[in-house]
Write a structure and sequence with these properties.
- There is one protein chain.
- The protein has one domain: Spore Coat Polysaccharide Biosynthesis Protein SpsA, Chain A, CATH 3.90.550.10.
- Helices cover 28% and strands 24% of the residues.
- The protein is built from 6 helices and 11 strands.
- The strands form 3 sheets. Strands 5-4-1-6-10-7-11 form a 7-stranded mixed beta sheet, sandwiched between helices.
- Helix 2 packs antiparallel against helix 4 and helix 4 crosses helix 5.
- InterPro entries: IspD, IspD/TarI, IspD/TarI_cytidylyltransf_bact, ISPD_synthase_CS, Nucleotide-diphossugar_trans.
- It catalyses: 2-C-methyl-D-erythritol 4-phosphate + CTP + H(+) = 4-CDP-2-C-methyl-D-erythritol + diphosphate.
- Pathway: Isoprenoid biosynthesis; isopentenyl diphosphate biosynthesis via DXP pathway; isopentenyl diphosphate from 1-deoxy-D-xylulose 5-phosphate: step 2/6.
- One of its GO terms (molecular function) is 2-C-methyl-D-erythritol 4-phosphate cytidylyltransferase activity.
């Protein structure tokens, strides 16, 4: 069956896979190496991310997609596998990773949880909550956080309007969709789409919003590292 086939029926027990795109350079972070490999609380950031997924027994496999030639994670343990098929954009890395999962035996009807390598504060409980909320959903969904701040629209460096925030959410990851449907949506949406839910929306679908949390932020800017470090250390025994 083709990877991009749409499956009308679903099996009694589809499996759950994790896919971690880890091929970015993190140019906004201001680090000498890709930000996902920057040390935080004694470990490279991505290893904190992988530890959270390793603690979720329902996952059949966790696949990390790195850039061709990247050898930082050359010694994976039993909790994850490596695919050096990263692309020029996140969407291409995810699409290539989906193809690799299919080559490893994943089926179009299986679920895939795509998660940012640099979103290292996600917890096993949040991952489990997403699976619980979406495993019987017709579309799938994503962790997200209700916008807590007043939202302004800008024009020329000044406030142009205050926007109603009551229906606004900050998209997080993991984002969980069926492998075949997600691959088809990504191919249709093109390489510029910034997250998997956006690709599914472009295909006319409405992903489910599952409450995440303020600490599940993506380490992006230099000031984010200190906050992530503090949270990680606060969780240590």
């Amino acid at each position: 069956m083709s990877l991009l086939a749409t499956v009308a029926g679903t099996p009694a027990s589809p499996r759950f896979f994790a896919l971690i795109p880890c091929a970015g350079t993190g140019s906004r972070a201001g680090t000498a190496q890709p930000k996902q490999y920057q040390p935080l609380a004694g470990l490279p950031m991505v290893l904190h991310t992988l530890a959270a997924f390793a603690a979720v027994p329902r996952l059949a496999r966790c696949l990390v997609v790195v850039a061709p030639g990247d050898r930082f994670l050359d010694h994976p343990d039993a909790s994850f596998s490596i695919a050096d098929c990263g692309g020029a954009t996140r969407a291409l890395s995810v699409l290539n990773g989906l193809g690799q999962l299919a080559a490893l035996g994943a089926e179009p009807q299986d679920w895939v949880l795509v998660h940012d390598a640099a979103r290292c504060l996600v917890t096993p409980r949040q991952i489990e909550a997403l699976i619980d909320a979406c495993e019987h959903d017709a579309v799938g969904g994503l962790l997200a956080h209700k916008l807590p701040d007043t939202l302004k629209r800008e024009a020329g460096g000044r406030v142009a309007a205050t926007i109603d925030r009551s229906d606004k959410w900050l998209a997080q990851t993991p984002q969980m969709f069926r492998l075949g449907a997600l691959a088809a949506a990504l191919e249709q949406a093109g390489p510029a789409v910034t997250d998997e839910a956006g690709a599914m929306e472009a295909a006319g679908l409405q992903p489910r919003l599952v409450p995440g949390g303020a600490q599940n932020f993506k380490v992006t800017y230099p000031e984010d590292f200190a906050l992530a470090e503090a949270v990680l250390r606060s969780r240590q025994p």
